């Protein structure tokens, strides 16, 4: 996944931003040195109903360790919420309460490396996830390890969260028989979104459960795959703090290497995310890190609002904004709505790069022209741009009721 490349990239741009990942699991080992400085002290134990979410099973410590490992050097903190007991078992009510608590504590990401195999009985969990999604929290869930359809598994049956299957080091679907002779393989189905490493992983384990005494062991399963994606989501949330859960999911899928059948399939989803492909380099010769305008140029380029001056390779940061480019900028900000070109202005033709933007600006009332023309290639004045922005805000339905005394 090359998470370290993305982590290094994010560390240079995240500033003092922080992200909280709620790990709903068997708790964590607060004494583990690898987790030092990354665990929040406001976790909770919904098994014993107290404020000590220590791990007496081992699973949650492994999950937390993967998130910490993938986000080294970043202000990504773990909120431990214990919902599974010493045997790894839990109940719907405790899990739902844990999700509600994560929402209350302001979590940005919730990792659910757990599965309930009869989702019809998991209504409290689904209702809590509904609230989390509505609150703008990115929810990541393990697909499950029983080679069954995710339609029968909660929370993996949901389409509005990120569901993760597991692959081995060769990017093949996790598939083996355990010591009991039972088949261990990722669940499959329409809801599977991506895959992540989940076989023979070195993980943190509580010292109370560690036979070697060094605090590390091996683990397998989609439970270990999910925290890789939670870590990716946390890094992207640091980079793009205003991004919605669906936007973060789209970014993760956008860099996925296709596996299995061509295109999305029920085993691998969209594939295996290659996170270093999310590292964006500006293509402009005249814009460099350290320039006072670099961050805002980076932002509008990332969002696709401004792509530079034609084929020159330049952003041209010191040039004036002309009227057709103002129309194009706002048209892209509005999502580039579908329009049918027609002749409105004598200085706009159907072949112009801003033709559709000019029609949209006219129809939306954002730009009504200048003496019967768009005013293409004319510099836009500050007061005119203020008026255009005000119209754009009204068009988008923003609250423009506030007034100031100038």
How many β-strand stretches?
A: 13
User: How large is the radius of gyration?
Assistant: 25 Å
Approximately what portion of the residues adopt beta-strand conformation?
A: 5-15%
Q: If helices are DSSP runs of H or I spanning 4 or more residues, what is the number of helices?
A: 10
**What is the N-to-C order of secondary-structure elements (H for helix, E for strand)?**
HEEHEHEHEEEEEEEHHEEHHHH
| Helix content class | 25-40%
Structural class by secondary-structure content: alpha/beta
Mean pLDDT across every amino acid position: 94
Distance between the termini: 53 Å
- Overall geometry comes to elongated
In which order are the strands of the major sheet placed?
2-3-1-4-5-6-9
Low-confidence stretches: none
Largest sheet: 7 strands, parallel
Structure description:
It is a single chain. By secondary structure, the chain is of the alpha/beta class. It is 29% helix and 13% strand. It is built from ten helices and 13 strands. A seven-stranded parallel β-sheet has the order 2-3-1-4-5-6-9, sandwiched between helices. Strands 7-8 form a two-stranded antiparallel ribbon. The chain has a two-stranded antiparallel sheet with strand order 10-11. Helix 2 links the parallel strand 2 (44-45) and strand 3. Helix 1 (3-11) runs parallel beside helix 5 (222-239), helix 3 (92-104) runs parallel beside helix 4 (123-134) and helix 8 crosses helix 9. The chain is elongated, with a radius of gyration of 25 Å. 44% of the residues are buried. The mean pLDDT is 94.
